[in-house]
Amino acid sequence: MSEKKIKHLEFIQNSITRMSTNSFIIKGWCITIISAVYALSDKDSNRNFSFISYVLIPIFWYLNSYFLQLERKFRLLYDKIRILGENNIDFTMDINIDEFKTKKTNLFNCFFSKALWPLYVILIILNIIILRML
After folding, report:
1. Which of 50, 84, 112, 122 is the most exposed place for a label (fewest CB within 10 A)?
2. Is the separation of the CB atoms in 127 and 34 below 8 Å?
3. Mean pLDDT for each consecutive 10-residue tract of the chain (134 residues)?
4. Rg (CA), the chain
5. 4 three-class SS
6. What are the DSSP calls for 67-126, one per residue?
């Protein structure tokens, strides 16, 4: 494998790693901020803060889905470049071509992927339970 191809694959791998890291950080921020909202909406303070979590959870879920979608598209680009001939390497990072618009990279499918929906559904259920207890 040539230096040119290896370098291009490294660029793509760095993007995949970045999207994966962003997804992990978003999950952490979601749990941290939701916990802070619960602390602010304790029985002795203003309970209206607790309703913020109904907006925050779907926003974080969407952001996490978006980064998962980008990660999947970069994985497809990686596979494409991996089998591409040496003369065709042009260092493209374009993931918005029709070739990468598959069922797996659909935002809706990313939204309900096995990596995301259990966490956010559990957060929503816990949110409902906690808000009934307040």
Report:
1. 122
2. yes
3. 88 96 96 88 69 92 96 94 82 86 93 95 90 76
4. 20
5. helix
6. HHHHHHHHHHHHHHHHHS-GGG--------SGGG--STT-HHHHHT-TTTHHHHHHHHHH
- Residue with the two structure tokens 């490294």: 10
* Token pair of 87 as six digits: 């003369």
Which residue, among 52, 51, 54, 66, has the nearest Cα to 116 in the 3D structure? 66
Nearest Cα to Cα of residue 72 among 19, 21, 111: 19
Beta carbons of 7 and 62 less than 8 angstroms apart: no
CB-facing half-sphere around the CA of 19: CA atoms within 13 A: 17
Please provide the DSSP assignment of 5-68 as one string. HHHHHHHHHHHHHHHHHHHHHHHHHHHHHHHHHHHHT-TTS-GGGGGGHHHHHHHHHHHHHHHH
The amino acid at 1: M
CA distance 62 to 118: 14
